[in-house]
Amino acid sequence: MPELPEVETTMRLVAPKLVGRTVVGTDVSWARTLGGLTRPAFARSVTGCTIRALRRRAKQIVLELERDGDEAGALLVHLRMTGRLYVEPADQTAGAYVRASLELDDGRSLRFLDVRKFGRVLYVRDADAALAHLGPEPLEPGFTPESLHAALHTRRRALKPLLLDQTFLAGLGNIYVDESLHRVRLHPLRRSNSVRRPEAEALHGAIQDVLRHAIELQGSSFDRFYRTPEGQPGSYQDEFRVYGRTGKPCPRCGSSIRRLVVGQRGTHICPTCQRTPRRR
DNA sequence: ATCCTATCCTGGCTGC
DNA sequence: TGCAGCCAGGATAGGA
Length: 280
What we know:
This protein has seven helices and ten strands.
């Protein structure tokens, strides 16, 4: 499922094809993709707008719009679990799972494809306001070992659900949390306020290393869902140490990787490297 | 404050 | 071969 590295990869690869383009039409086959806005209202909002810039915030791609040189809101694209975004010639027949298309002034079309229909393409007047609830970006300078340690101690939650909470830290999902925790030998059920300074520093480093490496490898593709906008799979799945490796040996100690459920999420740990905390 | 459950969705998988 | 039932999973809402 697309997490920060997959979303970053998608954003980087579609951006050059979109910046400077003007939207000349829309086609929405699944209205709920728009998150409540009606199709006509969506069409009125974006048709005639030029895409000024793209950026990523958490797991969302932000398309900044302008109209006649003035700022004109933004599109927030959230791929959720099975969403994909790519650009292709407008005369190419849209696949069965394309939920929304933006026709561009160069004869191409931006396609949002999503098998499970959880993804969203939202039009907002004020992107910053719509994204204000999100926590820090893990690869931005504001995220430091000190800030992570301090933040962990403002809460008493289990580490895994806390790291998945986008208002706590933006961009991590199930895969990269499991991978990060394993690297620093922290159990997903460890209470956040019990994490000591050196552990927080190590966790900070692991999160950044894992995310940077995954971006280099264009994300993880272990099922048929995630592909880059060029249709290529990522290759970080070959670097997984625990995720989806139930029963296989831990690359560090050889113990059999175990799957448990934490916060209703499939969770993968090495039972030797990641000791169960005493007090749940 | 934190945790738990349900909801949204579909295709793939299991079991009969 | 066909089919019912179960499952994953990001985000969010509502209840305990």
